[in-house]
Amino acid sequence: TFFILLSSCILPEYKIAVVDNKVYYIGEDECIWYMNLDGKKKTKLNDNKSGFEAIDDKYILYNMPAFVDGQDTSITYIMDRNGKNQRQVNGERLFNSIIYNDYIYYLTEDRYLHRIKTDGSENEMLSDVKMYNLNVSDSGVYYYKENTNDDGTLESVALCKMDLDG
Q: What's the CA gap between 24 and 104, in Å, rounded?
């Protein structure tokens, strides 16, 4: 058992992930770190104070603050799991991002499902249904969809599935 004091107030957007026997986490400096499962060999991956969105066996997705069209926003970046080859995914912020089979499945700010190759190519909209939450597996894309009445009030929430290609 090990214990690391990260700060006196951990924010809810701080994530942890365990991939290939390494724990990826956000340090007190708000940068991405990893360590062995026993808490040893702590390694800092970036100096961006970014947090992370998703991690798989090859890549880490993270959001960087940006100022676009006169507004504060974030843009999603991707880097190799060793912290190298940092680059923008598509110049936008991706939400609920999942890396799967060299694609990034994500929701746009208006909640529509897209996917893009991890190299930034083949960006495509898969659905014009507004979605909430997202999970991707060999069997398809799973998501929540809100069903509303004519007056816009919530009627129900449905758990839905679609094929990987939409």
A: 19
pLDDT of residue 14: 67
129-142 burial, b if ≥16 CB within 10 A, otherwise e? ebbeebebeeeebe
- If we measure between CA atoms, which residue out of 122, 140, 142 comes closest to residue 131? 142
Which is higher by pLDDT, 1 or 43? 43
For the chain, state the CA radius of gyration. 17
The DSSP symbol for 41 reads S
Cα–Cα dist 125/105, whole Å: 10
Residues 6 or more apart in contact with residue 74 via CB below 8 angstroms: 63, 64, 65, 66, 93
28: three-class secondary structure by DSSP = coil
Nearest-5° Cα angle at 46, 41 to 49: 115
